[in-house]
Design a protein that fits this description.
211 residues, single chain, 36% helix, extended, alpha+beta, 3 helices, disordered C terminus, six-stranded antiparallel sheet, 6 strands
Amino acid sequence: MKKLESSLTNMVLVLTGVAVIMGAILAYVNHLTEGPISEQKAKSLADGIKAVMVCDNLVVAKTDEVKQNDAKGKELVYTIYQVKDALGKDLGAAVESTTMGFGGNLKVLVGFDPEGKILGYTLLEHAETPGLGAKADKWFQQGEKGDIIGKSPAEPLTVSKDGGQVDAITASTITSRAFLLAVNNAYNAYKATPAADAETGATKQVKEDKE
């Protein structure tokens, strides 16, 4: 009986030791990758801003957060990147907006000119069905069936099925509605934000990747 108890104790000690060692290794690996992951996210965001603003050499003059309540009273947070060109001319802003799509969060980055017209957009995050809702990354781009580029959401953009002017993604009306809601909300958040201050200490360059 003592031998059995001894074996059980040894087993517990060994398993505990292995768990501690593995935990330490995972923590070390996480520490090593944290920096590169953060840098990659920053680069992806910078590239996304350049893409939606249709400008390679620009300045993010100011970053704001705007909180607004949706139709159900839920508080939503929007990040607004006020943008200027290299000479200090106001280009508008890139706005992060998130809504609930068919499969989960649908997060978009939308570029607006100073008048509020859509310059471009990109999907930052989504869990939509491949081949259906996932088509949102292309469907609403310039020249495509649901083209929203150049439009102003001053009058909310809606799908044609709801009496609007935008063609929904085939068999993905829910995703289309969620996407347009995210764009409309981004516009409202942008219009609720004061213009960027060119002299702000938060000013930083988003330089064209030369590699």
